[in-house]
Design goal:
This protein has about 425 residues and is α+β, with helices and mostly antiparallel strands. The chain has helices at about 1-25, 30, 90-100, 120, 135-140, 145-155, 155-160, 165-170, 175-185, 200-210, 235-240, 240-250, 305-320, 375-395, 405-420; strands spanning about 45-50, 105-110, 125-130, 160, 190-195, 215-220, 230-235, 255-260, 270-280, 280-290, 295-300, 325, 330, 335-345, 350-360. The strands form 4 sheets. The protein has a 5-stranded antiparallel sheet. The protein has a 4-stranded parallel sheet with strand order 2-1-3-4. Strands 5-8-6-7 form a 4-stranded antiparallel sheet. The relative contact order is 0.14.
Length: about 425
């Protein structure tokens, strides 16, 4: 087998040299388009896609024409809808695009959260989790499944699960990334950090000391879609502490909380956001999201506000890069969403006060139906890039991998087709 691998690699290298001669000085771009065949017997790199985002459809008319019938979201319109419009979702579409881009290199294993197990992932060379982590399983009340997924996520280097565990935990523990960003001088919402259990009387005392008229409390770990929040006027809690005491009782098992003042616009409504998306390490697009109108989404138009939010997001992504690693080596995140809060303020040059509200991993809403790209194409290419980076580091580490030498040869062919990895 080793001899066959060497022959395959020599063949691919020879073809590259030939392509260089033909291209003359025509640039590397022409080389990357050169077709390099896959020798018989190499098989394919198997990529797992954990999907289930019924709220993130692709743009109308951009879906794969062979989108599997069983993966379509049929009940997705009307009052009893299970999702947010459309049958064709971004997560499944991305998996299909990977196979479309390099059909003789990749095969896709689509699985829902309930299908996740160490045994299932062991059959794949790499698995991208787009919607099916432990926090979602817990929120769905599937505790045994959550325990299985935690096992998979913690053992990410052996299960070859992306996102990587330490980076993922850093994002889920909001207080961790908030404190790191604050230390780096990045503006955040003023916050009281509760790190060792909730004490209603102590927290209220701190809120009064801050002089906040209204405030909210939310869990700092595994909190999403507004779960576990209590909010109201400070004076109301002073007059009647019982709701706050009950919140303390209800959250005895939770240790970390964030206490923050209401950040309101001059009209009294909750602040809006400009969500910035980084794909394979690069800023790609930003989407305006209204704070109260759940249909208020659009690509943020060019201008001073967009640019200011982009630059703040880039500063924040530098902190993300300090944490995200694979096999101990720095690696770009597949997708990171950095939500920048915006509050109108005429006293400021751009007319808005801006701050980082949240950092989200790839297990989030991509809002591809509003972005300037075909989201499956953007993410499909990013997944191929990520697979090349992660699998090369896995091979360098000497991890157990199905058909290791075949994978090595296939990665070499990808290098010949697409050019060497630059970062």
């Amino acid at each position: 087998m080793a001899k066959a691998m060497k022959v395959a690699m020599k063949k691919a290298t020879a073809m590259k040299r030939k392509a260089v001669v033909k291209a003359s000085g025509a640039a590397a771009a022409s080389i990357t388009k050169k077709k390099v065949p896959v020798p018989k017997g190499l098989g394919k790199i198997r990529i797992g896609i954990i999907h289930g985002k019924v709220f993130d459809p692709v743009k109308v008319g951009t879906h794969d024409r062979k989108y599997p019938e069983k993966l379509k979201i049929k009940n997705n319109t009307g009052r009893s809808a299970s999702g947010w419009g459309g049958q064709y979702m971004a997560d499944v579409s991305t998996g299909l695009k990977i196979a479309r881009l390099q059909p003789d290199i990749f095969e896709i294993d689509f699985m829902r959260m309930d299908d996740v197990s160490p045994k299932r992932l062991a059959k794949n060379h790499l698995t991208f989790n787009f919607w099916g982590d432990m926090s979602i399983a817990i929120a769905d009340g599937k505790i045994p499944l959550a325990k299985t997924i935690i096992e998979v996520q913690k053992d990410c280097y052996n299960t070859r699960h992306i996102p990587e565990w330490n980076y993922y935990e850093w994002v889920l523990h909001k207080s961790r990334y908030m404190k790191q960003c604050i230390k780096a001088g990045i503006p955040m919402i003023p916050t009281i950090f509760v790190d060792n259990g909730f004490n209603a009387k102590a927290v209220l005392k701190q809120v009064q000391a801050k002089g906040w008229d209204k405030f909210l409390v939310k869990p700092a770990y595994m909190s999403f879609f507004g779960q576990g929040i209590i909010h109201g006027k400070t004076q109301d809690f002073v007059d009647n502490l019982e709701p706050f005491i009950q919140y303390e009782r209800d959250n005895k098992k939770q240790k970390e909380f964030l206490v923050q003042p209401y950040m309101l616009k001059p009209n009294g409504l909750v602040f809006d956001e400009i969500r910035n998306f980084f794909v394979d390490g690069e800023w790609k697009y930003s989407i305006y999201t209204d704070g109260t109108d759940y249909e208020g989404f659009y690509e943020q138009p060019a201008g001073a506000l967009k640019e200011a939010c982009k630059q703040l997001a880039i500063r924040t992504y530098e902190e993300v890069k300090k944490v995200c690693k694979w096999e101990g080596k720095p690696i770009d995140t597949l997708l990171t969403r950095i939500d920048i809060g915006i509050v109108p303020d005429k006293s400021l040059k751009i007319g808005y006060k801006i701050f980082v509200n949240e950092i989200e991993p790839q297990i989030c809403t991509w809002l591809g139906r509003y972005c300037p790209y075909e989201i499956a194409d953007l993410m499909g290419n990013a997944c191929i890039s990520q697979a090349r980076k992660a699998l090369k580091l896995t091979l360098e580490k000497g991890r157990k991998l199905p058909d290791k030498e075949k994978v090595r040869a296939l990665l070499h062919i990808l290098d010949e087709r697409l050019g060497p990895l630059t970062k």
